[in-house]
Amino acid sequence: MIEVQEQQNQLTPYIDQFERFEQDSELSPAHFLPIRKAAIARFAELGFPTNRDEDWRFTNVAPIANMVTSPASQRTAEVSPSDVSPFLYPELDGPLLVFVNGRYCASLSHTQSMPDGVRVLNLAEAISAGDPVIEEHLARHACYQDRAFAALNTALFEDGVVVHVSKGATPDKTIQVLFITSPESVATVAYPRVLVVADESSQVSIVESYASVGPGDYFVNSVTEVVAGANATVDICRVEHEGDNGFHIGSLHLHQYRSSRVQYHLMSLGGRLISHDVYALLDGEGIDCSLNGFYVVEGKQQVDNHLWVDHAKPHCDSREFFKGVLADQGRGVFCGRIIVREGAQKTDAKQTNQSLLLSDRAQIESNPQLEIFADDVKCTHGATIGQISEESMFYLQSRGLSKAAARNMLVYAFAAEVMATLKILPVKTKLEAELFSRLPRLETTSA
Amino acid sequence: MVDSTSTLDQWEQSEYKYGFVTDIESDSLPPGLNEDVVRAISAKKNEPEFMLEWRLKAYRSWLKMVEPKWPNVTYPEIDFQKMVYYSAPKQDKDRPKSLDEVDPKLLETYTKLGIPLSEQKMLAGVAVDAVFDSVSVATTFKSKLAEMGIIFSSFSEAVQDHPELIQKWLGSVVPVTDNFYSALNSAVFSDGSFVYIPKGVRCPMELSTYFRINAMSTGQFERTLIVADEGASVSYLEGCTAPMRDENQLHAAVVELVALDNATIKYSTVQNWYPGDENGVGGIYNFVTKRGKCLGKNSHISWTQVETGSAITWKYPSCILQGDNSVGEFYSVALTNNYQQADTGSKMIHIGKNTRSTIISKGISAGHGQNTYRGGVTINKGADNARNFTQCDSMLIGSECGAHTFPYIEVKNKTAHMEHEATTSKIGEDQLFYCRQRGISMEDSVNMIVNGFCKEVFRELPMEFAVEAQKLLEVSLEGSVG
Hints:
heterodimer, A: 447 residues, alpha/beta, eleven-stranded mixed β-sheet, ten-stranded mixed β-sheet, 10 helices, globular, B: 482 residues, six-stranded parallel β-barrel, 12 helices, 24 strands, 34% strand
C-alpha cells in the first residue's frame, strides 16, 4: 500500500500540470484535446517505470520520479548568443531554431534562409493555427499507449518544431534545431516535441541538438516523430550535450513508407542519465533504415539505447550500428530488437553493438534481440565487449608513441567507425574534435 | 514444388514412433497438492527428517511464488491441484533383486525403447538407472562402479545410503527458493539419480538414465544430483521418450551439478518426449531447471543437449563459474515442428578469475514451430580476464514458423572479452539445388544440410548419442521443405 501511495505522489504534480492544458484552447484545440486527455490518462495508469519492467531493468528512473519538478520558466533573456554558440554549427547556413526551456526563442533563431518547399514552424503556433499536417501526423506515430514517458510528453508539451517538406522538394540546406535548458534553483522539466514530415520523393537533413547552460537539476522529456513518405530521404543527426545534472528521456517514432531512406545518428555526449527509445516502423517495400549511435560515459553517467526495428513489409534493409566508450563509473545499456513480421520476406537486418570498457567500475548491459516470423530473411546481430588490446598498445608504443597517445589513438579509432557515418560534415568535424579533447580526461578518470 | 509439398505433408503426418502406454497398476496419491501430500511423499520414501524439512521449506516458499509468465511460450493455465504428485509401480515395497523379478511388462517397455537392460547392455557398456514413473526399478553396473567408489544410484536409495552427501549437496546449486518450478520440484520430487565420483577417479563408462513418463496425468518431478570430487571426471547421458497421449503433462525436473577442483562433468541430453500431434494437441510441458556449479579451481562443466520433443520446452542449462580458471560450455540443438514451442538457452555467470565459457546454440524451426534462444552472460567485478563466446544460429523451414533470439549480456569488468554472434536464415536454396541436381532426394538433402548445420553440437555428444541424435533429427525432419 505504501508503495502505491508513493507512486501516486510521484504522479500527482504531473497530473496537476495537465489541468492548465485542459482550459487552454491555444495549446489544446478541439482536435487535439482528446489525444492529450488519452495520453495523461495512460500516463496515470502506467506510472513511472521501475526495475521490474523488462525494458528498465538496468535503469533507475527513481531520481526523476522523486524529483519535485516545476515547468521550466521562460527565461530567454538570460541565455545569450554566446551561451548557445558552442552547440551550433555556423558552417550550416540553413534555418536555425533555438528553444529555451522548451519554448521558442525568436531572438536566438533565424528562419529567413528557408529553402523552397520547406516549412519550418514552431509547434505552438502550428497547433493553434490548426495546420493540416498537425492534424494528420502529430501524436499519430508516437506510441504513447504503452510508453509512460511518451505519454507524459504528449499530454504536456507546449512547443517544438514542425518541419514539413513538400512533395519532390530537395533543399540543399540543413535545418538546425537546438533545445537548450537553463536550469533554475528548483528542478525543472521541459517537453520538447519535434515533428518531421517528408512528403513523397522529398529530401531533408536536420541537426537536432539538446544542451544546457549552467548547473542545476533538470529533466528533459522529448519526443520526435518522423514520417518519411514514399521515396523520401531523411537524415537526422541528434546530438545530446546535457549537463551533469540533466536527465534526458527521449524517444524517436519513425514511420517509413515505400522505398524511403532514413539515416538517424544518435550522439550522446553528456548527461547524468540519457535514455533513448527508437521505434522504427518499416511500412512499405524497399525501405532502407539505418540507425547509428555513439556514446561516451564517464563519472556516474548512464546512457540507455532501446531500439525496435519493425519489419512489417518485405524487401526492407535495416542497419543498427551502436558503439560506446565507458570510462570511470559510467554505465551503458543497449537493447536492440529486430522484429520481422509474418510475410516480411527478403528482409535483410543487421544489428551491431560494440562497447569499449576503460575502467573496472564501468558497466555495460547489452541485449541484442531478434524476433522473426518469416523464413526467407537474413538477420544477424553481434555484440562485443572488450578493452583496448595489449598488442595494439605495444605496437604503437614500439613506434615511439607515448602510452597516453597510443591509448587515445586506439579509443579514437574505435569511435571513428561510427563518426564516419555522419553525413553532415561540419557536425562530424566538430564532434570528432570534441571527442579528441575529451580523451585525456577519460584516461585519467579511469586510471 | 510438387515434390516439396508432398514431402512436407509426409513430415507433418510422420507419427511419433515411441507412443505406447504400458498398462500397470499404479500406487498413486490422490490428485492435489498440500502439506499432507508433501509429508506423504516423504513418508512413502521413508526419508530422514532433514529431507522432510527441506521439502516443506520448498513447498512453503513455492506457495509465495507466482507462476512465471515471461517466457516466449503460450499454453493453457496449469491446474496444480489437479495433478497427481506421486505414483509408483506396485512392487515398491519388495524391490526386485534381479532382472527376473522385474515386471515383464516393464522389461517389454524398455525393450521397445531400446534400453539395453539385458546382455546387450554389457556390450554397450552403459549403466542404466531406469526411472519408470517415479521409482527406480533396476540399476545395473552398480557393483562394478562401487568397486571404484563411484556412487550411481536412484535418488531415494542415495537418501537412505548416503544421507550425509545428500544433505551436503542437495540444493547447493539450485536452492529451494530459486524459481517457481524448481521449488515445486523440491517439494514433491519422487525420485531421480544421484552420482558421486570420489577424488581422482575417472568414471570408466558413460552413465545413463532413461526417464520415461507413464501413468495418466502424473507430472514427473525428477531430481538429479551429480557431484564430482577433486580431480574426478564423469560423462552422464540423459535420454527421454514418452508414450503418446492427449493430455498435457508437466515435467519439472531439477538437475544440479557440482564440480570441485580439477573435476570435469559432461552432461548430455537427448530429449524426445511426445511433442503433441500435428494440430498442437497434447504433448509434454518440459519446464526444467538445470544448473552446474564450477566450485573448484580448473573445474569444467559441459552441457550438450538435443531437443526435439515436448510441446513446450523451457530450460536454460547454466554454469556458475566460481572457481578460478573454470570452464563452462553449452552446446544445443533445438528443433520445433508443428506447434512446438521452445524457449531455451544458457546462462553463464563468471565469478572466478580467468573463467571461460562457450555457448553454441542451433535452433531449427519448421511448421508452426516457435524457437527462442534466451541466454545470459554475466561477468562480475572480480572475474578478471573472463572470456565468453556465444554463437546462436537459427534456421527457418517454412513460412509460418518463428525464430527469436534474446541474449542478455552484462559486463562489470574491463578485462572481460565478450563476443556474441547470431544469424537467422532459411535453409539454403542453392545448397538444396546443388544436392538435388546430384540426384539426392529432397528429404536426404534437407537432412544433410540440417545435420551439417548442427555438426558443431553433435561433435560434442558421446558416440552413441551422436548417432541417435542424428536419427532423431532425421525422423523429426521428414519432409521438411516447403
